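> agent: user asked for a holo structure of the chain below bound to calcium ion. Plan: (1) validate sequence alphabet, (2) canonicalize SMILES, (3) run complex prediction with ligand conditioning, (4) return tokens. Step 1... ok. Step 2... ok. Step 3 dispatched.
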Amino acid sequence: MWLYIVAALTILYANQVEAQTKLRLCSNNQTVSVEISSGGMNCQCQIAPQDPVVRDDYIHTPGIGSHKIYTDAKNWNDARKACNKDDAHLAIINSKAEELLLVDMLKRAEKSIKNALNQEEALLGAHDLYQEGEFVTIFGEPLASTGHVHWAASYWGGQPDNYGGNQNCVAIINQGGMDDVNCRDKFAYICELPIPC
Ligand SMILES: [Ca+2]
Ligand SMILES: [Ca+2]
């Protein structure tokens, strides 16, 4: 599909036409929408639309998404890669309803969580690894762009606290809200299937 994009951009540059090009990548990077506008011409196309990823081992909640909690604790990067193996990503919370769903999922799984720093938390797809205090999703977008940001205000004195100067990955906690945790510590983690365009 990138060939199509490169070809479209090449044509535009070759014709020395002043144009605006917009690209939209879906979360799974499998679908690309291209919008090209030039003078009076406006061209829109969608390349290689993909069917949504479906997995029987994920819990599908209409209007919210498809999620799975893994109880074999991993550090954030290993959890990230484990989700990718499912064609999924570490979960991103977009609404209060999704937060409540994930909290419930965590509570139900707590007793099954093994080898974790604690059983109160599960890793999510957000971090401030690029710039301290600047939290972004696993896709690099500002956390605020998710539409729902709820830090646990009363957990260990209020979160995020960057405790020890080294908490750069995000987890949901069983009382609701998010906590920043050490990326090297192991926790349960929640994967989410990408939403198709
Ligand atoms: Ca931090
Ligand atoms: Ca923290």
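> agent: step 4 complete. Summary for user: The helical segments are 2-14, 76-85, 96-109. Residues 128, 132, 162, 167-168, 180 surround calcium ion (ligand 1) (CB under 6 Å).
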